[in-house]
């Protein structure tokens, strides 16, 4: 239990403002994306970038992310620690596939991968509907 | 971009065996839980413990987790790094609320919190249906 962190519900929770949430989102690039899949739900790590309060990433052809075209509801989460203080930011929104080279280029998503756009990859934008963040202390050390 | 990690689909991916997945699950205690919520999906960090290939955690009364009684499908994810090598384990399954003190005690979940069980908390067990893990290298450093 050396890495024990109490459930966030137990600690005093500080709500983060939207500006701070976006600063944290812009300062990180690995998140977990949750999506609906059939009758269930799935989750996986995703590398992303932020531009103009939109979130961008890409997915390989044939990956699970093709399900997004069927059910675009997603939840996107990052978290981290500063010493004993943990924080988490969650973005809920809808995923949209970008269809034109111009919007893909403008998004900045290609900087993540240093590759030229090809039609065999899917470039995805998350349009946020709710952005929430919390900070909570890892107590009882 | 100092923390840049490429999308996992781009790197050679090593699939982890189920035993290794469970070893990683047992060696960590902070995960992200995704669940269906209304027409959408939600995700949040959760502190957990593992016992006999079940995952246990608890949630405060009135929290989002009450939705689990309506739609018990969940996806549960941990990830981490060993040097340049990243790994991720995902458990998909169904969440069940534990109703009796004896099963709550037997689960070991109380060790997470050093508190006596009370009926005002919900103690949840995830019964896994699929456990998958992958390891992938963070390239282009």
Could you characterize what this model shows?
Chains A, B: This is Nitroimidazol reductase NimA-like FMN-containing flavoprotein (Pyridoxamine 5'-phosphate oxidase superfamily). Chains A, B: Pfam families: Pyridox_ox_2. Chains A, B: InterPro entries: Pyridox_Oxase-rel, Split_barrel_FMN-bd. The structure is a homodimer of 141-residue chains. By secondary structure, chain A is mainly beta. Chain A has a single domain (8-137), classed as Pnp Oxidase, Chain A (Roll). The first copy, chain A, has two helices and eight strands; from the N terminus they run E-H-E-E-E-E-E-E-H-E. In chain A, a hairpin with a 2-residue loop joins strand 4 and strand 5 (54-59). The radius of gyration of chain A is 16 Å and the shape is globular. Residues 1-9 and 114-119 of chain A have low confidence and may be disordered. Chain A binds chain B through residues 1, 3-10, 28-30, 32, 34-36, 39-47, 57-60, 63, 73-77, 79, 86, 88, 90, 92, 111-114, 140, and chain B through 1, 3-10, 28-30, 32, 34-36, 39-47, 57-60, 63, 73-77, 79, 86, 88, 90, 92, 111-114, 140.
């Amino acid at each position: 239990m050396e890495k024990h962190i109490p459930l966030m519900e137990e600690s005093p929770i500080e709500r983060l403002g939207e500006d701070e949430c976006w600063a944290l989102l812009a300062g990180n690039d690995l998140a977990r994306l949750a999506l609906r899949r059939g009758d269930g739900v799935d989750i996986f790590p995703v590398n992303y970038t932020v531009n103009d309060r939109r979130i961008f990433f890409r997915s390989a052809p044939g990956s699970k992310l093709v399900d997004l075209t069927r059910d675009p509801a997603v939840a996107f989460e990052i978290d981290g620690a500063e010493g004993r203080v943990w924080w988490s930011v969650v973005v809920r929104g809808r995923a949209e596939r970008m269809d034109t080279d111009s919007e893909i280029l403008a998004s900045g998503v290609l900087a993540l991968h240093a590759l030229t756009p090809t039609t065999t990859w899917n470039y995805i934008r998350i349009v946020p509907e709710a952005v929430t963040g919390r900070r909570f202390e890892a107590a009882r050390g």
